[in-house]
Each structure stands twice: as structure tokens, then as C-alpha cells.
Amino acid sequence: MLLLCVAAATQLESVPSTDLLAGSRSEIAKATSDLTDQFGQDPIAISLEADLSSTLAPGALTSLLSMEGRLNQLKGVKAVYGPGTFINQTVVQTERIVKQQLGAVGRQADAAEAAAVKAAQARGDSPAQVAAAKKAAFDATVGTKGKELQELLVRFGSVGLPGLANANFVKTLVFGAGIEPKQRFKWLFPDAEHALILVRPDPGVSGPDMLALGKQIRRVVTQTKLGDAKVEIAGLPLLAAGLERETRAEILRLAPIAGVAMLLLLLLVLRRRRGRLAALALALGSLGLTLGLSLPLGLGLTVSTVAALPVILGLGLDFAVQLQARYWLERADGLAPDVAARAAREGLQPTLLLAAGAMAAGFLVLMVGPVPLIDRLGAVLAIGVLSAVAVALLVGPALLVALDRGPVKPLALPGGDRLVRFSPAPIVIAVVVGLAVAGLVVSDRVDLQSDISQLAPSNLEQLKDTQAFQREIGTSGQISVAVRATNVTDPAVLTWLGEVARKAQSVDKRLSAGPNLADLVTGGDPTAQINRSGTQAMMKLLPPYFLDAVVSKDRRTAELTYGVPFVSVDEQGRIARRIDDLLKNPPAGVSASVAGLVAESANSTRQLDRSRPWLLLLAAGVVGAILFAFWRDWRRVALVLAPALLAAGLSSLVLALSGVTLSPLAAALEPLVLAIGLEFGMLLDMSFRQARAAGRSPAEARAIATRDIGGAVGLSAATVAVGFAVLGASRLPLLAQLGWLVAAELVVCLVVAVLIVPMVSERMAPKVRAEGSPSAGRTRPGARPSKQEVPT
What we know:
By secondary structure, this protein is α+β, with helices and mostly antiparallel strands. It has helices at 2-10, 17-20, 27-39, 52-55, 58-72, 83-102, 104-122, 127-142, 150-156, 167-175, 208-222, 236-269, 278-294, 303-332, 337-364, 372-394, 396-403, 416-421, 426-441, 461-473, 491-507, 517-522, 532-541, 544-547, 569-581, 597-631, 634-658, 669-693, 698-727, 733-764, and strands spanning 44-49, 77-81, 194-201, 230-234, 475-484, 512-513, 557-565, 591-595. The strands form two sheets. The protein has a four-stranded antiparallel sheet. The longest helix has 35 residues, at 597-631. The protein is elongated. It is a multi-pass membrane protein.
């Protein structure tokens, strides 16, 4: 069965982890989707560390140009932007404009160039010598007529006639009159010792194909002679793909660990009891059914799926243990196997169905959150709990009968007699409740973070590459600005774009501006007036290859990009919000929004941070409303919810005081514990009421609930807690944090439930109407007349 579960998991399609950190309903998400469709995914960057004078030497430029051409031909690559392509495209486009202006002389220059190149190649000249011969032929043919274009060439940022072998042209193009690269070319030349090559993958490339693309890129770079340049290759697409691979591998790691952990738990707690592994078989069936349903529902294989699977195994074991414990009680009372199985199902079915429905509703509350990572977790858990109760009630009785080899000693809670006598002073209860309320109040002070690197194991190769690249270049991702208009090349739009670009630089001096259409049109001169004729002239001069990097072919969408400084995720979010504030008053007919993963995840996490305390209250409200609809008793609803709410409040207080930073997945901590923990209170409340219905006194009913059902509840809580604790063994920090936190909080919830629910039920008993049950007409095994008959 376990192998079938794993096989089902491997059939689920992976969902990029980057998609899970950003909500799909926001304006930022829509803008990001538009830019990805138009310009490709965030780039895979190749950093070359060497003095730019050597990187831009004629021979090195020729090698770079060849390498960039091969990169551009790789499957899955939308575009490549690098020094060789940049300078070569500038040369080609400028030569084309020059020859158009020269007319017949230009055609003569073409013929002279072709002849010079042919002769140089016949002599066996080097590429640099061939380029020099070509330029000499052009100069000799054109003569002084080429000077007529000097003003346009100077405006574009070059000196002399263009050519890869023209050192003055290359130097002036990249550096201008200074020793540092021009500000508007920082996206290709961050400083005088670094050059970047940006490979933008196609929108549809993800998972294994992205990792394969990364290997091909590295192979091409390795095969290119780059002198003494130090090379770094990294990018968010590669990190996300590496994390997807780790996610799938984590299922293969955690599934056996979870299975063994549950097996050891059953062997330890149910020692010397026959049929003790029936519950594990039912739990595995629940897991298989959940995975089978996830496939047609399109939930995919995500970090959330991995987080949910051990928990679903625990929940499946929880329901199965409750059924088996009740079955053993019925068999100890002398019933035949088939009658005991039917009585166990009838006695538990109303409570388990109601508990499962309320738990599923509590899990589904997570789907109102702004982060898909949480949505998926809620959806998978909701399917899992419904699968668990269905398997337990439909398959469980028949399996228990088939494995029955005679009566088995029922479960009992160790130290039950002492717990029955436990009665804390009112002041102690008041202090605990006060601390829990304080924790709920300050829960919004627990910080969240959305750094994708926190999802990945520290030894992941792609993570190490990304961190090394970030330290080398000083940037950690990019923020984009999506601008949409009927025609983004309209002078009014370009003027506004230029103003936004200049103001964005004042947001943080460490921002590294990417290509900007307004900057390209003005040649980087902030004082230049943008008019229609000048714009058209520059648009003709600019290489189409680079126009495609900043403006869509239909001229309706433009992109501005900014390299984000290597700072904390919180600070990146503040930078994104400040840039977004600059976009509030665009010209008529223009819409603009920040975009990209940094902006998306910061926005989603900020919304999740604001909504996190309300998720718990919403879950409590939804679950409470469902229970009230069946019970019509608010006191009873409050009683079964109290353990989970107290545990949530106390844990929130500890987290707030300790300064722990939660991952987005751990933001679901309190609603998860509420949804799972309410079952503990419901089962104890059910036991107390059924004992009262059988004629037992409040004190006897408390003892029965604490000793008999408390043991089963304790084992149920242990199975779910172990399921979460298994996540603590994950190599993914996000999963490990969630696992340990929920496991610890469930233990607190169990202790509070066992101590509080029977005690408060006893005190409320005079005001509580005894309820009938399917077994009320006979003596219940839990309502035996003497203490000696109660198992210990």
C-alpha cells in the first residue's frame, strides 16, 4: 500500500515553488504574467569577473558573440542579452543606418568590405585582422562622407564608425568619458570588473527541462575560451527547478520515515495487542485515496503536498485508532466481532463525520489566504481528512472483523486516576486563559518572510550558486515595472517613463537599473526633450533585438527592471512598495504596476502577515458555526474549541517573545491546530455524554472519559503529532519548521483537552441534558459499574 501511495505521488505534476509564493489574483500577479508572456521568465545570469578592458577586447568579444549565439539556439531560450550581442547588434544596426544614408556610396562600401573580408580570410588572418580589413575598406570607400552621420552617432553614444575592432567605439559605447560603465548599461556591466550575460527562458519551461537547460548553458560556457574570467551561473528559474526536484525527492524520503514512525508508535503503544497494525493499513489507504483524488483535481506536487502527506497519514491513523479502540471496548463487553464492528461504527460515526466535516472546513479556510502555498495545504488536508474518515468508516469495520483473533485489552490512559482528580485553582485557569488571550493579541507581531531560499536545503547546488552570484554582484533578484498603453512609444508615455526611472533611482541608490525604453530613446540624456520625430529616428537606429527586451512588438507593453540590492526580504518588499508608489498617477490611458517574484512574494507575504490572526478567528467561526448547527449549544461548542484556542494562544505568545520568524507555510500554524485539535475535545465530550446517557454520575462520566477515551485520544494525538514531527526531518527548512511547531502545539492541545474538557463537562453537567446514543439501551463498556472493571 505504501508503494502504491508513493507511485501515486510520482504521477502528480510539479508546480514551481515560485508560483506558490505569489497570489494569482493580485494586480502584481497579472502584471508579472503579462511580462513573462512577452519577455520570458526571470533571467539565468552568467557573471564574468575580469577587467572589462580584457573582456571587451576584440578577440574576447568575438568569443562572447559566438557563445551568446549558441546559447540563443538552445531549446527553451527566449532571448539572450550579453556584451558580445549588445555591441555586435549596435554595430550592425548602426552600419545599416549609415549605409542607408550614404546611398550609392554605401553600396560601394558593401562590395569593398566583402572583397576585403574575402582576401583577409584567404590570407588566413585572425578574426580581429579580418574586422580591421573590413573597416579599412569601408573608410577608404566612404571617405569624408561618413562624417555627415557623426552627430547621430555621438547622440547614440559612439565615436567614429562602428566595428568590433574599433576600440574607441567599444570604449565610448560602454564607458563614455568615465572609467565606470555608463549607468544605463549597468544591467550588462555592473562595474568595471564584471560583465553579465542574461538568458531569459521561455514562459513554459520548468522543472526537469529547466535543470537540463541549466546544464546545457554551463556546458556551452565551459567550452568557450574566456581567458582568466571567473564565471558564476545562477538564477531564480534554476533555484526554483532545483527546489521542485528536491520536493519530489522529499516524498520518497519522508514516506518511509512516516510509515516507520507510525509503525513504531503502534508497536510501542499497542504492544501485545493482536490486530494492532490494522489501523496503519487503514491510514495508508487514506493516503492513497488522497493522492488519487489530488491528481484529477489538479492540485499538483508541491511543498504543500509534501507537508500534508505525513499529516494525512497521521489523521488516517487517528480515525482508525478511534474505531479500533471502540471495537476493542465492544469486544471486551462480550459482543461478537460483526456486532462489535457495527456497534463501534454506529457509536463513532456521528462524532467522526461531524469532526471530519468541521476539520475540513477549518482547513479550507486557509484557501482565503493570499499565498497559494497555504491554499494548496488547506485543499490537500481537506481532501485528506475526508478520505481518512471515509476509509475508516467504510473499510475499517470489515478489516477489523477479518483480523479479529479474540477479545483484546482496551486502551487506557496512563495515570488516568491522577488526571481524574486533577482540579486546578480558578486563579491558575484565569492566568492560563489570560496568557492565551495575550498570545492571540500579539500574534501579528510574529514576523513572516518570503525568501525562496528559505524553501531550499542549504546544500542545494542551485542555492549555493545563487548565493555566490548575489555576493559577487551585490543583487538578489529583480523588480520589474509593467507599463501598458495603446502605444508605449508615445512621447507623453516615454516622458513619464523617464521620470519614473529617475525617481526610482532615488528610492535606493543601490538599485541597478535595467534597460529602459525612455533611456534608450534619449541616449541616456535626462535633459533631452522627447518628441515624435526624434523618437522615430532613434527607434530606427536602435537594434530591434534590444527593443524586444523592453517593449512588446505591438508596442502596448513596456518593461523596466531594477536589480535589487543584496538585502533582507523585508527591505526588498519596502523598496518594491516605494517604487509602486511612484506609479500612482500615470498619464491618461496608461496603467503601470510593479511585477516580478520579489514584488509578488513581498506583497503576498505582507497580506498574509496582516490576515494571519484573522485566519484563526475565521477558522474558529466557521467550525463553531458548523458545530452549533448540529448541537444548538454554544457552551458545548466553546468547550470543544477551547483546547485548540488555548494552545494557539500560548504558542503565539512564545513565538512572539522568542522573536522567531515564520515561513509562509508556518503561517497556517494556528488554523491547522484548531482544525485538528477540535477532534480531541469532541471525542472526550462524546464519551462524557454517552456515559451520562447510560446513567452514570457526572464524576463517573468524567472518569470514563478521561481513562477510557483519553487513551484513544492520546494515541490519536500522538499519531498526528508524529506525522508533523516527521516533517521536522525534512531537508526543506520550511517543512521542518512547520512540522516541529505544529507537533509541539498539538501536544499542548492534547494536554489541555484531557485536563479541561472532562472537568468542565462535569461542572456543567447539571445544566447539560443527557443525550441518547445508539448504545444507550444497554450497559456501555465505558460505563461499567465498578472501578475494578475499568482497564488500566
